[in-house]
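Memo to structure team: turn this sequence into structure tokens by end of day. - J.P.
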Amino acid sequence: MILLLFAVAGIALAAVRGRKTGGRFSPEGILCLRGLWFLLAGLLLHEVPVWIPGFPARLFGLFTVAWDLFVLIFLFLNRNRGLPVFLMIAGTLSNFCVIASNGFRMPVSPAALAMYPGMTPEAVAARKVGYFVAVRGANLYYLGDVVPVPFGRLGGFASAGDLLLGVGLMLLLAEVMDGDGIPTKEKSL
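Reply from structure team:
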């Protein structure tokens, strides 16, 4: 859900930049991104384990590899976008490394968990397939979900990779929606 917050921030940033610079704000700019369906498919695969009650934990690793692969293909196709894509690649790889090194489960910090009264390690395991509370530590622990995001139902936990992905997404949306991403007659001459 944290990516949703960054996406909204990117749209807002594009609107503000467009207004201040006399440019235009154009949601159609998103359509100029190459292979957008790869990103959408990756995000959909990421949510499947959350939506399906009793999702088999043994399939979580397969879904992790698939969604990261789809996201990386999208990012490769848009590599000419510079810093935003570089940040998103770094975030995707960071998340993949920590998940893969922990048996395809994302460690959650006990300190981050403490921000949510009543939430126990058992509740995390029951509600979030592929997550565990790292009471005794974890591989690449500091790349795990160690940052609490206290935004009510939109909140939760975030990792360094989530933050890199989010900032990259925000910058990418701001870039393509402020008119820079859309070829115009003036730009193509």
